[in-house]
Specification:
64% of the residues lie in helices and 3% in strands. The protein contains 21 helices and 3 strands. Helix 8 packs parallel to helix 21 and helix 9 packs parallel to helix 10.
Length: 499
């Protein structure tokens, strides 16, 4: 056995343990009774401890060094070079973090996730506050393991977006913010579109059936995946051939399930499309979340909110809900599902205001990590930011500071990737439309395999082989740029709102 093969064997077992953890976490959000949170936290904590011990062991260190020597001199783009580099990244990261810290943090977030569900249900931040306080302190500790750094937020961001710095995100957002605010202001000056037909009773099972039909057309492989319900929609996988998504059905707001399923399907298509040669390697696991989110946001918005998409699917939706939609034309429906209006809930936000939700979260996360914002007054700070960015104020904690699951999982550093994913999706969409001139005609006939083939060839197969900036360079010839997204917004909403 070569030294590289020996390393792959060791890493394959670590990846298996990671997928076992993911299975326990999926079950906790989909099936587990709430009373099981502490026991589940102990299970996950023990598993994480074993994973960290294994990846930071002398055996792994020796195998990694020998594998690095074996691939030295190979082309930088070589798959094995990238696999070894990905292992090195995780080894260096985890050797800086004590194993017992990782295990305890896993236990903490498992219990906190359950506490968040209860707090959100009761709209009671006080119930979640002690858990969040401990998580914030722990994330500061985590950042401290990587000192010195340019900014305390850098180690957290790097966990989800390899190679990205806080200053990079701030610079991108600084260029995007005035452009996006200008679009929103222009829309606000125009007559508002009507979406009252969406604010009616829609049977939950029929919503589910419609979502299943859509993502089946998108190419979701039901032999290698499934969909369930959860408080907050998410995607996870336990290998290339076991990819799970969840959705959330709201009786009086069908857009939640429709676009939520499309969003998570975008993630799942990515996972199902990773090349088998990366099975049980960190390349299939350590993926840029901006690249991942580009796929979910693309399927949800650039595909799912397009007129060509609804030319095919709207008659199907009308037939399911004639009592609500029989007298609503295709044009009215298209305009309605693309209504731009400042709203409280991020996952239900329109395309023109969505990134503003992300920017306010980034500012709060940075303030929490810097210590200029405390958890005690976070609801008030949240409400002030929402008022500043969107001109509205949350009436309660459930629609405000408690609406996202991310902080209960300790995912500080994740939110910026949603906006970065939006930008990447628009950059790549311009290339897709050039490469597939009849793309929208295909959509009108319910054909999405041309798009999926392009995504498989250019994005999905690589998994985490490339960073977001590397992949952007490969596909578009340049780094992440907000202007294609701005052009997309102006073109689409200029047509809808008449400017």
């Amino acid at each position: 056995m070569s030294k590289l093969d020996e390393l792959k064997t060791i890493v394959g077992e670590i990846v298996d343990l990671g997928h076992s953890r993911a299975l326990l976490e999926w079950d906790a959000q989909v099936n587990m009774a709430r009373g099981g949170a502490e026991d589940r936290g102990n299970l996950i904590g023990t598993l994480v401890g074993i994973m960290v011990e294994k990846i930071t062991s002398e055996k792994t260190a020796r195998a990694l060094e020998e594998a690095e020597a074996e691939v030295a001199g190979l082309d930088d783009d070589n798959d094995d070079v990238r696999i070894v580099r990905s292992v090195r990244r995780e080894f260096d990261r985890l050797t800086k973090v004590p194993g017992d810290w990782m295990a305890n943090f896993a236990r903490l977030t498992s219990v906190a996730q359950n506490a968040w569900e209860v707090a959100k249900e009761k709209s009671d931040f006080a119930h979640f506050k002690p858990h969040l306080s401990e998580i914030v302190n722990k994330r500061r500790e985590y950042a401290g393991f990587f000192a010195p750094f340019d900014h305390v937020y850098d180690p957290l961001l790097d966990e989800f977006e390899p190679g990205m710095k806080t200053v990079d995100v701030k610079n991108i957002f600084a260029k995007l913010r005035p452009e996006q605010v200008a679009v929103v202001k222009e829309i606000a000056s125009r007559p508002q579109v009507d979406n009252a037909f969406l604010l009616k009773d829609y049977d939950g099972q029929k919503q589910w059936d419609f979502g299943v039909d859509v993502i089946t057309h998108f190419g979701f492989d039901w032999n290698r995946g499934r969909q369930d319900k959860s408080v907050h929609p998410f995607t996870t996988s336990f290998g290339l051939d076991d990819v799970r998504i969840t959705t959330k059905i709201e009786k009086n707001w069908p857009a939640a399930a429709m676009f939520g399923s499309m969003h998570e399907c975008g993630h799942a298509l990515f996972e199902q499309g990773i090349s088998p040669k990366f099975r049980r390697t960190p390349v299939m696991a350590n993926i840029s979340m901006a690249v991942h989110e580009s796929q979910s946001r693309m399927m949800e918005n650039l595909v799912g909110r397009s007129l060509s998409f609804w030319k095919f699917f709207y008659p199907k939706l009308q037939s399911l809900f004639p009592e609500n939609l029989a007298n609503v034309s295709l044009e009215q429906f298209y305009r309605g599902v693309n209504k731009v209006e400042p709203s409280l809930i991020r996952i239900e936000a329109d395309e023109a205001t969505y990134n503003l939700h992300i920017m306010l979260r980034l500012e709060l996360e940075i303030a929490l990590m810097e210590g200029s914002q405390d958890v005690e007054t976070l609801p008030e700070a949240w409400n002030a930011k929402v008022q500043e960015y969107l001109g509205i104020t949350p009436p309660n904690d459930a629609e405000g500071v408690l609406q996202d699951v991310h902080w209960s999982n300790g995912y500080f550093g994740y939110f910026p990737t949603y906006a970065l994913g939006n930008l990447l999706s628009a950059m790549w969409w311009e290339k897709i439309e050039r490469d597939i001139p009849d793309l929208h005609n295909q959509f009108e006939h319910g054909k999405f395999d041309g798009l999926l083939t392009w995504l498989r060839a250019n994005i999905h197969q690589y998994g985490g082989k490339y960073t977001s900036q590397e992949l952007s360079q490969r596909i578009t010839g340049g780094p992440i740029d907000p202007m294609p997204y701005v052009r997309y917004l102006k073109t689409k909403f200029g047509a809808i709102y008449g400017f």
